[in-house]
Amino acid sequence: MVIQVLDAHSSDRASPIVLVGRNRAGSWVAREQRGSFGGLFINRAEALKYALFKNGHHPESIIEVTREIELDIPSP
Question: Which residues partner with 21 through β-bridges?
């Protein structure tokens, strides 16, 4: 298994797309599009704060969804 470490400041790397919305229980979810990270939050503001932190402060890479989303993070 090979693990590649990427420079966090690399300009050729796209910001991760983070989906923000509510799950079926009504909790707020912030989840990377492919499921590499995510979390559950008590309100929208905290979910957006986490999404901005995790994607390097790129609000254009955050998508707020109207459909239900779940925190499905695949195991390695």
Answer: 29
